[in-house]
Design goal:
Layout lengths: L6 H15 L1 E3 H8 L3 H13 L4 E3 L2 E3 L12 H6 L2 H12 L7 E4 L3 H4 L2 H4 L5 E5 L2 H6 L6 E4 L4 E3 L4 E3 L12 E4 L3 E3 L3 E4 L2 H11 L5 E4 L11 E4 L6 E5 L4 H9 L3 E5 L3
Parallel strand pairs: 4-5, 4-9, 5-6, 9-12, 12-14, 14-15
Antiparallel strand pairs: 1-3, 2-3, 7-8, 10-11, 11-13
Helix pairs in contact: 2-3
């Protein structure tokens, strides 16, 4: 007989089952997860409070309104929480060695790394961000590799052909997400964007996430990375301690970054 799951694993399983079936019952989950109905009700109550589901009589259904804000344009997002993004970017750049091959996603947080990256003598950058590629036009010592694809205007990035990323070993990759929670990991609002980022992550030997305060506790529809797929997480010192400790226990290196 298999052992009961720990709380976080159990709640992740509840969400997985809910996405597959559209609704769940307390009795079904109690039998499936080998815990009491009281425990399942506590789980459903906690997930309901995070807007990850809606409780019903005897179970739960998918939420009518998810705890996610609509995606803003690149220019608008770039103006938000600039001090945090710049602080996270400066700390993350310290992991880059001259001559390395690095991956940069299309987020505004990762884009904030460019002023320092452009000072390197030699780098190879793999990205689907048109903004990053354009910014590096005046840096001839930095080679830029991109996939083909269709321009996605909200992120000013290429999507649609994740298989066209170059087949190379990338030393380290830098990513951000639309949201992150203990139960769901890092999530993204666009399926096309999530597919491109996951393809880029799969080529990275080390994966780093830069998460500002706005993203904690927010859930977007598409999974980007589970805890097992993140090596290092950069977060402001103001990020939720409980969440950081959860990810630390999962083996993720946590770098708490002072801002200002």
């Amino acid at each position: 007989m298999s052992e009961p799951l720990f709380m976080t694993e159990r709640r992740r399983t509840i969400l997985d089952v809910l996405r597959e079936q559209g609704r769940v019952s307390v009795n079904e989950l109690s039998q499936r997860l080998k815990v009491s109905a009281v425990t399942i009700r506590q789980d459903l109550r906690a997930l309901d409070e995070e807007s990850l589901l809606e409780r019903t009589h005897g179970g739960a259904v998918l939420p009518r309104k998810r705890s996610v804000m609509p995606e803003l344009t690149f220019d608008v997002r770039q103006q938000e929480r600039q001090p945090q993004k710049q602080a996270l970017a400066r700390e993350a750049v310290k992991r880059v060695q001259n001559g390395a091959t690095i991956a940069l996603d299309s987020s505004t947080t990762v884009y904030a790394m460019l002023p320092v990256l452009k000072q390197f003598d030699r780098l190879i950058v793999v990205t689907h961000s048109l903004m990053i590629a354009h910014s590096l036009l005046d840096s001839p010592k930095i080679q830029v590799y991109m996939p083909g694809g269709v321009m996605r205007r909200d992120s000013i990035a290429l999507v649609g052909n994740p298989q066209n990323f170059p087949d190379m070993h990338i030393n380290i990759g830098f990513f951000s997400s639309h949201g992150i929670t203990i139960e769901t990991g890092a999530t993204e609002s666009s399926q096309e964007e999530a597919t491109m980022k996951r393809a880029l992550m799969s080529r990275c030997l080390t994966t780093c996430y830069l998460i500002d305060d706005a993203k904690w506790g927010r859930v977007a529809p598409f999974t980007l990375a589970t805890a097992s797929e993140i090596n290092t997480l950069f977060a402001p010192v103001s990020a939720p301690r409980e969440a950081l400790e959860h990810f630390r226990k999962k083996g993720i290196e946590i770098v708490r970054v002072p801002v200002g």
